Amino acid sequence: MNEECSGNIPHALEETESPSSSPAKESELRSPSPPIVESSLMDHDDFHSALEQNVLQEFNNVHFTSKNLTQKPMCKETAFESWKSKQEIVYGSLVDSYTANQNLCGLCKAISGYGIIKCKDCCNYLCFSCDRKRHSYDPSHQRMYFKTDSSFKSLLPTEFITSRGEVVEQRVHVPLFPLPICTECDSRETSCLIASSKICYVVTRKGRLDLNLPVFHCQNCEKSTFPTVEDYISSGFWPGTPERFTVLFHQDVLEFWHHLRLLTKNVVSIMLRVVFSIATKNKTI
Ligand SMILES: [Zn+2]
Ligand SMILES: [Zn+2]
Ligand SMILES: [Zn+2]
User: Fold this and answer.
1) How far apart are CA 176 and CA 236, in angstroms?
2) Residues forming a β-bridge with 167
């Protein structure tokens, strides 16, 4: 099994918190909040007014239903003063988020001599080897390479670091679910994904990723096949057209766009269309 085939494609399911059951006394304290869904029928000002009311109501509910019912809800001014009193700490923390304070890999616990990778999505420091294993199959993470001279570089999804601390490029493919059965030899679970030489643009909520199109490769019969439109869509990537996969939209973007259009009518959808148009270098959506 080659190195690319040995990686697992992460597909973590986001756990949604189940709403905690509210005791009767607490529910009596709650007043009905304006339903967000109906806001699609409101005009712009009404929506913002309803949204503000909704947020304030939820804010008050949190305080009234907390265990310490004697605690009064914090007013806007008090919250502002509270943040202001911590201004320096907050600023320091923000600066810290762009620095690295260790050179120990969080996965293999090795000391990295030529610098360290800090991944904001993994919330972890990684040595170059662990970074390559972790992010060759998960290109959406935001990674920064901190060198020994304290300078840093934001890494593209296709950029990795050699054992001597040099930045090199390697192909990274769009992550798809592997085929359960090979279409050529019918063997089960022998299919893996490798990166082809064909470039594609993937539009995600974090921005555009320039990746390589994947190929299914069977380790039993050694045949390679390009994924179909069904394979892309079932993995959450929607191509611009069903025949060509040069531009792919992640399903999260489309769902986000759909809900935003419902909530804010046409204005945001027009703006998003402009943004996507720029992101895809004016390719036809
Ligand atoms: Zn490591
Ligand atoms: Zn990561
Ligand atoms: Zn096969």
Assistant:
1) 8
2) 161
What residues have CB less than 8 Å from 272, skipping those under 6 apart? 257, 260
> Which one-letter amino acid corresponds to residue 177?
F
Q: Say what the pTM is.
A: 0.65
Residue at token pair 């907390």: 66
165 CA distance to ligand 1 middle (Å): 14
What is the model's pLDDT at position 232? 96
Reported as a single tens digit per residue, the pLDDT across 18-63 is 333 334 344 433 444 444 334 344 455 665 566 566 656 655 555 4
Which ligand is closest in space to the CA of residue 189?
3
- CA gap 46, 20 in Å, rounded: 30
| CA 173 to ligand 3 center in whole angstroms | 20
- Using CA of residue 200, residue 203, residue 206, residue 207, what is the dihedral sign? positive
What is the Å distance from ligand 2's center to 220 Cα? 31
Within a 10 A sphere around the Cβ of 178, how many other Cβ atoms? Answer: 17
Residue type, 145: Y
Q: Where are the alpha helices (H) located in the chain, listed in sequence order?
A: 24-29, 44-64, 76-85, 87-96, 128-135, 229-234, 251-279
Residue 273 in tokens: 């269309």
Q: Which residue has the higher pLDDT, 214 or 56?
A: 214
Share the mean pLDDT of the chain. 78
CA atoms within 13 A on the CB side of 211: 28
pLDDT digits (tens, 9 = 90+) for 218-248: 999 999 999 999 999 999 999 999 989 999 9
